[in-house]
């Protein structure tokens, strides 16, 4: 996204020393979910709270700094107060809520939890709107059933695996989440007519790649590059020697894999998906990322 907009990569909010936030800040956290109590201690509500602190502190600092030579470099690294109402607020969250629910409850319970998950999402957007946010770019969730991890650990496979090796009930769950998310985006538009909301169908982009991996130069979508789940659970970045065999070493051709570690997409796959979603053909309304703020 930043490459398409010809902007530098966003610095992380928690990596503030020496960072430049003039073009935005990244509040994303690995494993984060909308609701608290999931894989990460940084749910969406906490990320919004961090943003509110960021906005307050940067505005205070910006107004304190003068334009003299000593302070100018520091001032130039801060967002201007007026930038916050012009910024593009992007969201890609929700899949971990589904994944955590599937690991600890039943699929039926996860389906029942979707309205509450999205209610908390609604509240987060409202908080941002209340402090001046006006332009939102919202991704739906991907085909969670197509992750190699899902296939490996899904036991009742008979009749529930599609031609690509994806777990159909889990993809049905993701699609139900996306249906309700899209309905909520419509509700947000009605409640906040001064704001702009773009709903982005990441699910379709990712499933198109999975359905055409070999034609796009990738290996089977069920193969992954790093770590191991087959018999021995070894996280990516670690190795183990079992009966003389080394498990966990990364593959030699990561750019040919859709999945990096069985859960996350590879850089090559993410770039492929990004090209599909940035130009508006899978968005509602169908606007490219470069025009989302106009």
From TrEMBL:
Query: Does the record's keyword annotation contain Glycoprotein?
Result: yes
Native organism taxonomy: Eukaryota, Viridiplantae, Streptophyta, Embryophyta, Tracheophyta
Query: Which Gene Ontology terms cover its molecular function?
Result: hydrolase activity, acting on ester bonds
This protein's source sits in the domain of life called Eukaryota
What InterPro entries does the entry give?
GDSL, SGNH_hydro_sf
- Record's PANTHER family? GDSL-LIKE LIPASE_ACYLHYDROLASE (PTHR22835:SF555), ZINC FINGER FYVE DOMAIN CONTAINING PROTEIN (PTHR22835)
Q: Could you confirm whether the keyword Glycoprotein appears in this record? A: yes
Return the protein name: GDSL esterase/lipase isoform B
């Amino acid at each position: 996204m930043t490459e398409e907009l010809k902007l530098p990569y966003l610095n992380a909010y928690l990596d503030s020393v020496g960072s430049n936030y003039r073009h935005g800040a990244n509040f994303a956290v690995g494993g984060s979910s909308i609701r608290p109590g999931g894989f990460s201690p940084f749910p969406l509500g906490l990320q919004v709270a961090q943003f509110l602190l960021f906005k307050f502190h940067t505005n205070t600092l910006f107004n304190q700094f003068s334009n003299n030579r000593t302070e100018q470099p520091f001032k130039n690294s801060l967002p201007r107060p007026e930038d916050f109402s012009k910024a593009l607020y992007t969201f890609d969250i929700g899949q971990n809520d589904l994944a955590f629910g599937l690991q600890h409850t039943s699929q039926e319970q996860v389906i029942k939890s979707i309205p509450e998950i999205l209610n908390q999402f609604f509240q987060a957007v409202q908080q941002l709107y209340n402090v001046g946010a006006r332009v939102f770019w919202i991704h739906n969730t991907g085909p969670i059933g197509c992750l190699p991890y899902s296939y490996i650990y899904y036991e009742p496979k008979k009749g529930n695996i599609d031609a690509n090796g994806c777990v159909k009930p889990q993809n049905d769950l993701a699609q139900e989440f996306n249906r309700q998310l899209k309905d909520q985006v419509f509700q947000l538009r009605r409640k906040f007519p001064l704001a702009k909301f773009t709903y982005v169908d990441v699910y379709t982009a990712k499933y198109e790649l999975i359905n055409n991996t070999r034609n796009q130069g990738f290996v089977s979508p069920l193969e992954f590059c790093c770590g191991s789940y087959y018999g021995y659970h070894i996280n990516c970045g670690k190795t183990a020697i079992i009966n003389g065999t080394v498990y966990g070493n990364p593959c030699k051709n990561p750019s040919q894999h859709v999945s990096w570690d069985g859960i996350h997409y590879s850089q090559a796959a993410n770039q492929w998906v990004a090209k599909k979603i940035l130009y508006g053909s899978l968005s509602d309304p169908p606007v490219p990322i470069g025009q989302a703020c106009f």
